[in-house]
Amino acid sequence: MKPLILVTNDDGIVAPGIRNLVEVAAKFGEVVVVAPDKPQSGQGHAITLNQPLRLRQVDVFEGIEAYECSGTPVDCVKLAKNVLLKNRNIDLCVSGINHGSNASINIIYSGTMSAAMEASLEGINSIGFSLLDFSFQADFTAAKHFAQILVRGVLERGMISCKLLNVNIPKGEIKDIKGIRVCKQGEGNWVEEFQEGSDPRGEKYYWLTGKFVIMDENPLADIRNLEEKYVTVVPSGHDLTIYPAIEELKHLEV
Amino acid sequence: MKPLILVTNDDGIVAPGIRNLVEVAAKFGEVVVVAPDKPQSGQGHAITLNQPLRLRQVDVFEGIEAYECSGTPVDCVKLAKNVLLKNRNIDLCVSGINHGSNASINIIYSGTMSAAMEASLEGINSIGFSLLDFSFQADFTAAKHFAQILVRGVLERGMISCKLLNVNIPKGEIKDIKGIRVCKQGEGNWVEEFQEGSDPRGEKYYWLTGKFVIMDENPLADIRNLEEKYVTVVPSGHDLTIYPAIEELKHLEV
Q: Which candidate, A119, A234, B99, B155, has a CA 20 to 30 Å from the CA of A252?
């Protein structure tokens, strides 16, 4: 039987990245798409608690069952798993292809990765894909090529101690990219600036901007390998505990 | 010099929990509050990219400098660190006191914890507090008592290998609570149900609900200790890498 593959993203169902990912997924199995009806970048692991969600079947990808959802990327996965595909076994969830980097600490802010993580929490093997190119005209040829290799690898071999992969693909043609490397989440940070301005009514506003700074010399760091033009794959989980600190902080116990 | 303490939350600046936390913080240092102007539960690590943010000084806590922000909890911390307190050293960030549990996997969905995590990413020692009582009339006496012990402990002793604590406080009076335990993030999961209905126009909607299921027998799991009426403290970070899987997945490299 063909595997059932759920496709989602955070840029919205009409973004170019998800069309490319649907094309990859359709080579391997039956595809169902549930994606936000508007861009949801930077939504992190947000869920919608205070209002109802809408789900609407749409005709966006020829011959593919697809739904747009009024909620966040995580909402999309929850609705797919618990409503649309309630009695079916989802073999793989793929999210993206996002524009921009989800490497390093960006995994925390990324709606793309949060959707994939939500699926992994539900026990589904999941891969989030991101291409380091913000342009609407971005060339997805290399991203599709490597996504296909990784989807095949995970479907054929499975995963043992992890259910979630954070995949980032450098900008460039296939020939420019050196290969795929399994990495760790690199240490880096955003140095934030806020653009300050006044609106037409003279009220002050602040608009988030910033610069990413790499702070990791480890050769396994995803951000280092991306700079060297490798596709990076970081096996990821959801346990944030810093285990050595449990002993260190015993003095807080009463 | 008195320590500078940033207070934030995700329930909004007029929620009862933050007033209680401001009172605790004010015992130890100079307090600045920057909190959302509306409830932001379940916002995870969402940030606002596509619109400007507003910041407005408000008179909510007597004698305390306070600002409401139009953005998410993470936006509040970014604005506090990079605009309001740009040239000052923030000694501690406390977030909460949230209503409901941030234990186990809930750390991922929690705006309270995301605000605290954002501060930790900026190098600031941070504590997120949550009281396991959803009622607006919740009694914060015990929560304040234990928050005070923990704030003092962190200010006096600092932290070594971690910058973020996830603190959950059981419902009940001080005498009902057995003490404070440093724990690991417990394994658990939401079994989701969606309430389905029709709106006044006859259009179908889905509303998220669900039941939390504990799946962790480890005596160090926060959710187990909360059930036994301990305040739980989980030293937390931001590295999601599953290190053993790096070797396991080498077959994906090309």
A: B99
